[in-house]
Write a structure and sequence with these properties.
Radius of gyration of chain A: 19 Å
Mean pLDDT of chain A: 95
CATH superfamily of chain A: lithium bound rotor ring of v- atpase
Number of strands of chain B: 0
Helix content of chain A: over 70%
Strand content of chain B: under 5%
Largest sheet of chain A: none
Low-confidence stretches of chain A: none
Number of domains of chain A: 1
Mean pLDDT of chain B: 88
Order of helices and strands of chain B: HHHHHHHHHHHHHHHHH
Shape of chain A: elongated
Order of helices and strands of chain A: HHHHH
Helix content of chain B: 55-70%
CATH architecture of chain A: Up-down Bundle
Strand content of chain A: under 5%
Oligomer: heterodimer
């Protein structure tokens, strides 16, 4: 069965998963944070600047996913003329390389959105804590998306010989 | 409606954001203390000008107690409007706003019994407006009410003393609340209704104990047991057993329940000073303590409900402070009655 699936198709699936999963995590995360921020801003529009960082933070996972997908395309020489032809084994390697950022991006994006939403609520009451605590806690969740990205990059650059 | 799960109901992300900002504008304990210490109305107004009440008390048009009451009413209306706007679940909205409908029914039945005009006491914040409830009631078209309100009207009309009308309508209200709360299935709401029910029973217990009527009166007046014996709710039997006990021993019947302190301290104050002030304050504080748990909830309808009651509590504090100033009540006495802030 797997022999029937082309290596390139698997690699494309990996790139798509990286962008789709991490992007979905970001979209859901931003939805939580932006909804809460909208509520705060309805009553207190002057807090826009303070809340902006907390709303955009869950968006980074989507960028990591896109970046990983882009690297896969570069690796396949998608923009350089002749596209490389991968064996099925190489295709699987690319697909699995994309999973760390895809899955870590999905889960961490959702949870980061919730942490940011809580941080926005704290900022509504204690604006001085916005950067002291709210952003710091949100960045802690970010760490795990970053680790996912690093693993994906190492695997793509050093783990696969094309 | 889905009960609270995991991090709460995320549909309320916007609502909770708004509520947190509004909560930050509620009066804090320090400001309330300054209000109590204020020498006169003018000083009270100047303190309130630093707060969310600045606009209303910023002009000289507020001078009499009646005008102050109007301002408080405007704020109350705002809180109910916010709640109605932000509560996304119709069942919950009806549950919370129904209190006002039952209140209106009590006012109308008592008015019809005593023959006094009580329209001024009608609340406009219920599911049905005060005017509509009055019209249906006066026309004698009980079928115009929902089933639960019709039952309350029938129950209230079967008595002719204000005290029993209150008790009869409240019994129907709690029946509706408990049935609706079970349908909604939200643990916070179930707990809150249980708390209100228990606190009502505690106050009824002390009122009947101080007054006339005896055990048979209490047996009839106490509300049912809430959700059953497997919960923390206070069983009716505890009250009935404690009824004949001397006041020092009452709290032992409620040992290890969340209300032990309310019964001990409230009962002691009542015995020594003959006033329900401490008991009422302790009951209010219990409610606030429960509602404060919503500060830890990131999403869900709970903070929206808590804000409504927190605002009502704040308006009660202001009313007590203003009345205290008007009648020259000492700071100490005002403090004794003031509930804690949210």
């Amino acid at each position: 069965m797997t022999e029937m699936i082309g290596g390139n198709a698997l690699a494309y699936a990996g790139a798509a998963l990286a962008a789709f999963l991490a992007g979905s995590g970001s979209a859901i995360g931003i939805r939580y944070a932006a909804s809460t921020a909208s509520g705060v801003l309805t009553e207190d529009p002057e807090k826009f600047g303070l809340l902006f960082v907390l709303v955009v933070l869950p968006g980074t996972q989507g960028l990591y996913g896109f970046f990983s997908a882009f690297l896969v395309m570069l690796k396949l020489n998608l923009f350089g003329g002749e596209v490389l032809s991968l064996t099925t084994s190489q295709g699987w390697q690319v697909l699995f390389s994309c999973l760390p950022i895809g899955i870590a991006g999905l889960v961490s994006g959702i949870h980061q959105g919730k942490v940011c939403s809580a941080g926005i609520q704290m900022t509504a009451k204690r604006p001085e804590m916005a950067f002291k605590a709210a952003v710091v806690y949100a960045v802690m969740v970010e760490t795990y998306a970053l680790l996912g990205l690093v693993v994906t990059l190492f695997l793509l650059f050093f783990g696969i010989k094309l | 409606m889905n009960p609270s799960y995991d991090d709460g109901d995320t549909r309320y992300a916007y609502a909770v954001g708004r509520i947190r900002t509004l909560e930050a504008r509620l009066l804090d304990g320090q400001r309330v203390e300054r209000l109590v210490e204020a020498k006169d109305f003018e000083e009270t107004f100047s303190i309130l000008r630093e707060t969310d009440y600045g606009e209303e008390f910023g002009e000289e048009r507020v001078a009499s107690l009646q005008e102050i009451e109007q301002v408080l009413q405007i704020k109350r209306e705002g809180a109910y409007r916010t709640f109605t706007e932000l509560c996304l679940d119709e069942e919950v909205r009806e549950l919370i706003l129904s209190t006002q409908d039952y209140q209106n029914i009590k006012v109308l039945i008592k008015g019809s019994v005593t023959g006094e005009d009580s329209d001024f006491a009608l609340s406009q914040f219920g599911i049905l407006s005060g005017e509509k409830i009055k019209r249906i009631f006066k026309e004698g078209r009980s079928q115009g009410f929902s089933t639960h309100l019709r039952k309350a009207v029938e129950a209230g009309l079967s008595y002719d003393t204000p005290e029993w009308i209150d008790i009869a309508v409240d019994h129907e209200m709690f029946r509706f609340w408990s049935a609706r709360a079970k349908e909604v299935g939200n643990d916070f709401i179930l707990g809150f209704i249980q708390l209100i029910l228990d606190l009502e029973n505690i106050q009824t217990f002390f009122r009947i104990r101080r007054g006339e009527g005896g055990l048979s009166f209490l047996e009839k007046a106490l509300f049912f047991n809430g959700w059953g014996e497997d919960t923390m709710s206070l069983h009716r039997d505890r009250f009935l057993k404690a009824f004949e006990s001397p006041w020092e021993g009452i709290s032992s019947y409620f040992f290890a329940t969340p209300y032990e302190r309310v019964l001990r301290e409230g009962g002691e104050y009542l015995e020594r000073k003959g006033s329900f002030a401490s008991l009422e304050k302790l009951c209010d504080d219990c409610r606030m303590e429960y509602l404060r748990s919503t500060r830890l909830m990131t999403f869900g309808v709970e903070p929206v409900i808590a804000y409504l009651y927190a605002k009502e509590n704040e308006l009660k504090i202001l009313r007590l402070v203003f009345l205290g100033k008007l009648y020259g009540i000492t700071q100490e006495k005002i403090r004794e009655r003031l509930p804690e802030v949210f």
